[in-house]
Every structure is written in structure tokens, then in C-alpha cells.
Design brief:
This protein is an all-alpha fold. It is built from four helices and no strands.
């Protein structure tokens, strides 16, 4: 029963961050800023896409996943902290809580590292490895 409650708690926390994730999202979703879906009303492409469009879509997907990873890591760390507060002096439960918190921040560090590596790779593929990192221009 406890794993079910833990999963339910994490899901509720994750969904509470959903408005933050979707705030300011354009109507075209992963196709935002692409030339092949610029005039589309449905959100998908309405003409053939170029290699640059594929890179932009990849970047949009990676950015979305990173925006999901941050609240998820925070929710897991909060869950570990709550478990630690409810440990009632049990050293085993405190140790497990510390592991959960540590693993949450390690996961966040891995997600950040992956975001930096993939963004760098995408900018190199476009032939413009310069800043700003927020946009890909081909």
C-alpha cells in the first residue's frame, strides 16, 4: 500500500506543476518556431520540413522534457524530506530518505548535463555554435 501512496503523492505533485510547464506554450507544441508549421492551424507541419526544422523540433522536445524533470526532481526530494520527518527516529527510514533526496538531485544533475550536451551538439549541427542557447537559427 505504501508504494501506491508514494506514487500517488508524486503524481499529484507533478500535476500541480503542470501549469508552470505549459505557461507560455505556443499553440504549435513541438513544432513551434519551425518554418514547415509556421502557418499551420492544427499545430503540425503543412509543408515539407528541412533538417533545420528537425533540429528545432528536437530542441523543443528536449526543452519540454527538461521542464518536466525539474518539478519531478523537486517533488521526489520533497517526498524524501517528508519521509525523513515521518521516520520517527528509525535510522533505516532516515537512511532511505537521504538516499531518495540524494538520488533526486543526482537525477536533476544528469538531466541538466544531458540538456547542455544535447544543446551544444544541436548548435554545432546548425553550424552556429554561438549563443543564445534559447534559440536555434539555421
Amino acid at each position: 500500500m505504501k508504494p501506491f501512496l508514494a506514487a500517488l503523492f508524486i503524481i499529484l505533485i507533478a500535476f500541480s506543476f503542470l501549469p508552470i510547464i505549459t505557461h507560455g506554450a505556443e499553440g504549435t507544441g513541438i513544432w513551434a518556431s519551425t518554418t514547415c508549421a509556421a502557418t499551420s492551424n492544427t499545430g503540425g507541419p503543412n509543408k515539407p520540413c528541412s533538417f533545420c526544422d528537425a533540429l528545432i523540433v528536437t530542441k523543443n522536445i528536449i526543452d519540454f522534457l527538461f521542464k518536466v524533470a525539474i518539478p519531478l526532481a523537486v517533488a521526489i526530494a520533497v517526498y524524501g524530506a517528508v519521509m525523513m520527518m515521518l521516520a520517527a527516529g528509525s535510522e533505516e527510514r532516515v537512511r532511505k530518505s537521504k538516499q531518495i533526496i540524494t538520488r533526486a538531485f543526482i537525477g536533476l544533475a544528469i538531466a541538466l548535463s544531458a540538456w547542455v550536451i544535447i544543446n551544444t551538439f544541436l548548435h554545432i549541427l546548425t553550424g552556429q555554435p554561438d549563443f543564445p542557447w534559447a534559440t536555434i537559427t539555421c
